Amino acid sequence: MRFVIYGAGAIGGVIGAHLALSGADTTLVARGDHLRAMCENGLVLDTAEGRQSVSATLASNASEVDWSDDSVTLLAVKSQQTAAAIADLRAHMPLDTPVVSAQNGVANERELLRVFPRVYSLCVMLPALHLELGVVVQASSNRPGILDIGRYPSGIDEAAQSISSALRAATFLSEPRPDIMAWKYRKLIMNLVNGIDASYRNDGDAFDELVRRARAEGEEVIAAAGIDVVSEATDKQRRGDAIVRRDTGEASFGSSTWQSVARGARSVETDYLSGEIVLLGRLHGVATPVNELVQNETDRLAREVLSAASSDAGVALESLDLL
User: Fold this and answer.
1) pLDDT tens across 42-55, in order?
2) Which residues pair with 219 in a beta bridge?
3) Other C-beta atoms within 10 Å of 155: how many?
4) Mean of the per-residue pLDDT values for the chain?
5) Cα separation of 10 and 259, whole Å?
6) Per-residue pLDDT at 253
7) What is the secondary structure of 201-251 as a DSSP string?
């Protein structure tokens, strides 16, 4: 298989780096100053063992990729960037190329399936950072991550088996799963912390209460919608002790949304995390005030280019209690 990593940021960069190091034919699609830094120095992978420059083919868009019959695309852009990525891929990639969503949220796969016939979903359990141009940080000192895969909307086929095998060869834990979206919905509930982490100072009880309420809303609306989701215990068992977070400095435990705001990104993926719960709540008559507040506050910080985690969790909690 020839892997095209479309979006070589934190997640895509770490996955792509390990695939390249395993000997897999790997192309990294990136843009701007990050791409220019990789052109000069390769993709620098920062791990517990130190930094190394990883050599891979580089491209700025799908038109520069050398597509072949055995190409596989791993889409690793943020959810709000999926539409633009689909347009680029549609114009240049053979339409029957397997496309794997290695993204947070649960909406990307459906959008991909509108255009591409072979869509797969990757449940990404991979702590990573991308705050420095040309550099991605593997934030686990043990396995780099867990990357289970299945065909969308369900099932396993030969391609899923082969992709999983290649990921295992690249040192990831990976299993093909016919119910992959049930795992993605559990990941969605976990990711409801992202907007809170990006928006509010972690000052203890108020922050923790926002997270608890946001996730409780998530559980309630997913149940109301009749969506299958693996249990928290099953997810915890799958993770086991495979991922050991290492201290990489002040940003070590920042979520991917926190990183976006910290980098000054003017858009974030919260509409597809907290916003997904808000959407399901509106569709099924379930109130989701915490996730609605977080969705709008994170969007405001990004639009106004304000500092990450600059809002007061206590004030947010008081405003919710007044509703």
Assistant:
1) 999 999 999 999 99
2) none
3) 14
4) 96
5) 10
6) 65
7) ---SHHHHHHHHHHHHHHHHHHHHTT-----HHHHHHHHTTS--B---STT
